[in-house]
């Protein structure tokens, strides 16, 4: 599982639980995580209602969540609005609660059995915008609300579940169809460490209930133990979501893939037995009093408890005799009791998950810190009794609306005073004896908006101002940003505001988030500025250029989205979690053999590769070369290598011996994998590079003289015990070393970290199940991205070992109903010209993504006409950064789209100065996680990454006023004719439109032996049967270009253009071919 021990720091007299990274990103919102989970397995059951016998699938739950969210938003419920839920566990309460979490409205769950005084106390404290209740407590809630609402103020609406009365608002009315369910997008709520999710009630055992504030990230931490559940649970307790145990049980289904059993009824032994025997609950919770009543019931002797794995008991002291009886009952079928202690404020503190020790609660839970202090606050050591102070990894947010209680509850070091008396023994087991907004941070500095507003409002031309904190491009801190309303006629500019503010404030208060001029500030009816609306407005504006005339912030941003998976975790931990949660989902289909692989099968293969490779000596930091086509076991192997902490270097299966040797010499892999048809090339390359033998494993080979990769899939007998290790810092540990494209020189090794890989998985969750396909092996970034997409969402990846052919593509869309396909334009061009294309059924294909080289609008027009239910998309990506741009929003002729999620782009001139809208320059890119550079190539790394952390893409382009990027050419492709810059892609775009041209590549050949200048030259592949001549081409081009762009190097007709395996034209090979033809003078030229 993990190093489940309490660690004692004797010098500081502090105890620490095991450090465990959550699988999901604490920066994500619960709504993001829930939607990712619900979309992944729509047919799986998430909830069973024992009272009605009805089951609810993930798809049904998601639909109800969306409708609640949309209808609540329509009646004015928004982020920050509190909603009270005084409900028992009826079937629609959980979808409602999750809808509130999704739209950012914190809910306050109240005990459905509260009396009027308790109900009024919490309603007064939280002042909810809406209240939900049940038919049987409606009158109590109504009277309590009337008590707390001041005279003249409106009583908040009350919505009642499962009620037949005609004089109330029915909660089910908020489940009406909206007609917009399919377009719903989970809103971004801001910093999850600051965004309130729920206001739980403190236990109230020592006074009136208080409202315990938990953020979205704190709620994610509550579920940390669920990541170790190897099988989905069927959980049951009588707790309503008012109780922490009820609330965490509701969340658990999203983190462990389990089923939650619910009932509206209070505790009764008959229903407890029903949960175990009829519904086969395997994880149950009861307080000791319920457990005693169950064990004393006459029916006990005949009840089948064989399904129960864990019976957790807590909430009050648990007698050892009670545990003895439970353990004796469950032991014959492998179950046992658990003792747990926690609080609403900090979550789980201790649990004896591994070992039971008489009189003890157990060792500390993950990420928990504990101190024991005396009455004077002095820290105590092992075995010394005192007050228990606890601290979770997420700081306790205090009590809602009760600053005094918040101050009293937290000490100077941020520890929560539990009021419990206890000690920790020498083994680290806890023993309990008795009981005893507007301000934000920039890099840990507190920033007061009112201080900045006081300065800005005095500037001539400012009528109104609001300062807020907006997330920076990396999501690591909040940047001060100002929204300003100018006075009529004022010509105030952003640069002036910044200069004035910079002169009067400390560095951390500078307006790094931008200065934005708007028509009006959003306000309430009483004139109070709605800061959350301002923050949302600025976040949207920050997706595009700041239009800063001083040139200080000329930057374009993609939509900022917090990845749902934790970038501090390792890839193996994330993959294992995803595969465990959806075991029956088909993740891969082998088109060549028509074989399907489930997530469970994929995980088993991955685990066996991990365990057998580890036995073979593979360790963290090692490198594995993979020269493989897309055969059935290649993806499980790649995932296994990353899980171990080694990095895989995918090589093109078609590499010649020279290219293969180049990469082997660079990466020095510990072992190599290849296929049967390239084993000789790989073996020769290995012998030419290494003095000693390196093991070569061959996939799908019948040879007797090789190591068979399939031998590493043998059973180990340890599969069931497998838990992926945490292998180090994900921001430094390499997951893979990709090859740069190599179109203009030998490939370089692109270092990709675990954090980058996790960001790629978590930033693009696919909302709907999709079947995805491309021809790329893992050697190409598009091949890796397609593999990772099956973890990003509920998609199935089609694989084939075959190289591109039109018939294989038609098979993917007709037989296997591919929904998403990526291909280079050269493949697409062949498809639209195929004789059978008009008869192919393209109805399944929703997204045809094109990229890798220039994509003509004419080609897109022809493809779009073929797709009745989809369209083409122009995309740009790099091995260094990943997916960079796409025209998802709308298609604009000549554009490659807008920056994708969490991508930041700048355009700079030759001197590195930032350029603005419409200005052409070098394209610099930054992803959500930093690119480390090229493997063992410091010089290339230095020349590629600038001082601000941006990667030089090598492209030349510009942004238009709508934030759409246009790429003009590659820096290395552009050449000069007599001092004039010539863009090959511009000429190619013209020639490609000429009738009879199938493909074209423009290169530069030397004008003479001294290379005094370079001549534009075209290599053309004609359409079959075409009689197109060189003179015709030249005349058409001459009529459309300036003199210096004329094809003075000539026009060459060739049978084919040399390409990479994914269809990218190899310009250096084209140039070699043209130069060979030039020597034979088989060309029409003029100078």
Automatic annotation (TrEMBL):
Entry GO MF terms: long-chain fatty acid-CoA ligase activity
Domain AMP-binding enzyme C-terminal span(s) in chain numbering: 452-528, 986-1064
Record keywords: Peroxisome
Residue span(s) of domain AMP-dependent synthetase/ligase: 36-400, 581-935
Primary residence: other
Transmembrane region(s): none
Name by which UniProt lists this protein: Uncharacterized protein
Family stated for the protein in its record: Belongs to the ATP-dependent AMP-binding enzyme family.
Protein species of origin: Anopheles stephensi (Indo-Pakistan malaria mosquito)
GO biological process, one term: fatty-acyl-CoA biosynthetic process
Domain of life: Eukaryota
Compartments where found: Peroxisome
GO cellular component, one term: peroxisome
């Amino acid at each position: 599982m993990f190093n489940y021990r309490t660690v004692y720091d004797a010098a500081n007299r502090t105890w620490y639980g095991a450090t465990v990274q959550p699988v999901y990103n604490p920066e994500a919102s619960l709504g993001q995580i829930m939607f990712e989970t619900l979309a992944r397995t729509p047919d799986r059951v998430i909830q069973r209602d024992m009272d009605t016998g009805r089951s609810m699938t993930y798809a049904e739950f998601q639909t109800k969540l969306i409708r609640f969210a949309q209808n609540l938003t329509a009646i004015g419920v928004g982020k920050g609005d509190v909603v009270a839920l005084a409900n028992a566990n009826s079937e629609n309460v959980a979808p409602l609660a999750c809808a509130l979490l999704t739209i950012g409205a914190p809910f306050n769950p109240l005990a459905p059995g509260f009396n009027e005084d308790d109900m009024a106390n919490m309603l007064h404290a939280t002042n909810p915008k809406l209240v939900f209740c049940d038919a049987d407590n409606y009158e109590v809630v109504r009277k309590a609300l009337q008590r707390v609402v001041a005279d003249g103020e409106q009583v908040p609406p009350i919505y009642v579940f499962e009620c037949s009365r005609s004089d109330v608002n029915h909660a089910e009315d908020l489940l009406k169809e909206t007609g917009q369910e399919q377009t719903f997008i989970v809103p971004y709520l801001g910093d999850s460490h600051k965004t309130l999710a729920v206001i739980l009630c403190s236990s109230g055992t020592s006074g009136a209930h208080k409202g315990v504030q938990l953020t979205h990230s704190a709620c994610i931490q509550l579920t940390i133990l669920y990541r170790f559940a190897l099988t989905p649970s069927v959980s049951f307790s009588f707790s309503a979501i008012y109780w922490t145990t009820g609330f965490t049980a509701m969340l658990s289904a999203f983190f462990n893939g389990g089923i939650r059993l619910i009932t509206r009824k209070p505790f009764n032994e008959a229903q407890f037995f029903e949960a175990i025997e009829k519904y086969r609950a395997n994880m149950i919770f009861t307080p000791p009093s319920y457990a005693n009543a169950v064990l004393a019931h006459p029916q006990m002797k005949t009840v089948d408890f064989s399904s129960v794995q864990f019976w957790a008991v807590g909430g009050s002291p648990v007698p050892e005799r009670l545990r003895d009886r439970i353990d004796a009952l469950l032991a014959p079928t492998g179950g046992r009791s658990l003792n747990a202690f926690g609080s609403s404020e900090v979550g789980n503190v201790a649990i004896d998950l591994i070992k039971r020790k008489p009189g003890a609660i157990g060792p500390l839970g993950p990420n928990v810190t504990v101190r024991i202090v005396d009455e004077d606050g002095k820290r105590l050591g092992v075995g010394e009794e005192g007050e228990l102070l606890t601290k979770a990894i997420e700081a306790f947010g205090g009590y809602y609306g009760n600053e005094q209680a918040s101050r009293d509850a937290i000490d100077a070091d941020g520890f929560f005073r539990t009021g419990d008396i206890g000690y920790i023994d020498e083994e680290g087991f806890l023993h309990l004896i008795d009981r005893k907004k507007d301000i934000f941070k920039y890099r840990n500095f507190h920033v007061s908006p009112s201080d900045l507003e006081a300065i800005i409002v005095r500037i001539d031309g400012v009528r109104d101002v609001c300062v807020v904190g907006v997330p920076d491009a990396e999501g690591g801190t909040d940047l001060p940003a100002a929204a300003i309303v100018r006075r009529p006629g004022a010509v105030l500019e952003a640069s002036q505001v910044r200069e004035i503010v910079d002169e009067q404030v400390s560095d951390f208060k500078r307006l790094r988030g931008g200065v934005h001029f708007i028509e009006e500030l959003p306000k309430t009816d009483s004139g109070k500025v709605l800061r959350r609306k301002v923050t949302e407005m600025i976040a949207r504006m920050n997706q595009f250029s700041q239009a800063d005339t001083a040139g200080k912030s000329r930057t374009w941003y993609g939509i900022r989205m917090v990845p749902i998976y934790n970038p501090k975790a390792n890839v193996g931990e994330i993959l294992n979690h995803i595969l465990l949660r959806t075991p029956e989902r088909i993740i891969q289909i082998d088109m060549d053999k028509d074989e399907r692989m489930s997530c469970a099968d994929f995980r088993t293969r991955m685990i066996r590769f991990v365990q057998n490779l580890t036995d073979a000596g593979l360790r963290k930091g090692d490198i594995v070369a993979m020269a493989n086509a897309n055969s059935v076991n290649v993806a499980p192997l790649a995932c296994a290598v990353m899980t171990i902490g080694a990095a895989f270097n995918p090589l093109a299966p078609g590499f010649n011996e020279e290219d293969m040797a180049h990469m082997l010499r660079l990466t020095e892999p510990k072992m190599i994998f290849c296929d049967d048809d390239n084993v000789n090339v790989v073996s020769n390359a290995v012998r030419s590079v290494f003095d000693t033998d390196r093991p070569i494993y061959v996939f799908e080979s019948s040879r007797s003289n090789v190591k068979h990769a399939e031998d590493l899939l043998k059973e180990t007998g340890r599969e069931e015990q497998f838990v992926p290790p945490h292998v180090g810092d994900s921001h430094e540990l390499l997951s893979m070393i990709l090859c740069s494209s190599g179109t203009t020189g030998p490939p370089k090794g692109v270092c990709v970290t675990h954090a980058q890989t996790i960001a790629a998985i978590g930033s693009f969750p696919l909302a709907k199940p999709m079947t995805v396909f491309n021809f790329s092996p893992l050697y190409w970034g598009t091949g890796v991205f397609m593999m990772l997409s099956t973890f990003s969402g509920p998609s199935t990846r089609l694989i084939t070992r075959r190289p591109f052919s039109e018939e294989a593509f038609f098979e993917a869309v007709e037989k296997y109903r591919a929904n998403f396909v990526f291909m280079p334009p050269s493949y697409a061009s062949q498809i639209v010209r195929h004789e059978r294309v008009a008869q192919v059924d393209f109805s399944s294909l929703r997204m045809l993504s094109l990229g890798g080289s220039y994509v003509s609008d004419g080609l897109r027009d022809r493809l779009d006409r073929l797709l009745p239910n989809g369209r083409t998309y122009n995309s740009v990506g790099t091995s260094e950064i990943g997916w960079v741009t796409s025209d998802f929003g709308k298609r604009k002729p000549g554009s490659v789209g807008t920056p994708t999620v969490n991508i930041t782009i700048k355009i700079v001139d030759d001197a590195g100065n930032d350029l603005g809208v419409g200005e052409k320059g070098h394209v610099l890119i930054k992803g959500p996680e930093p690119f480390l550079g090229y493997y063992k190539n410091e010089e290339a790394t230095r020349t590629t990454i600038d001082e601000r952390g941006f990667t030089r893409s090598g492209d030349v382009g510009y942004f238009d006023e709508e934030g759409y990027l246009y790429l003009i050419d590659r820096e290395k492709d552009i050449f000069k004719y007599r001092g004039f810059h010539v863009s090959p892609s511009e000429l190619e775009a013209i020639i490609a439109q000429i009738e009879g041209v199938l493909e074209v590549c423009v290169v530069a050949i030397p004008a003479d032996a001294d290379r005094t200048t370079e001549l534009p030259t075209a290599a053309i592949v004609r359409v079959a049967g075409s009689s197109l001549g060189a003179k015709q081409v030249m005349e058409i081009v001459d009529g459309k270009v300036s003199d210096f762009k004329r094809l003075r190097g000539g026009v060459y007709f060739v049978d084919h253009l040399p390409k990479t395996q994914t269809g990218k034209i190899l310009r250096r090979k084209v140039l070699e071919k043209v130069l060979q033809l030039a020597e034979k003078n088989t060309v029409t030229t003029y100078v």
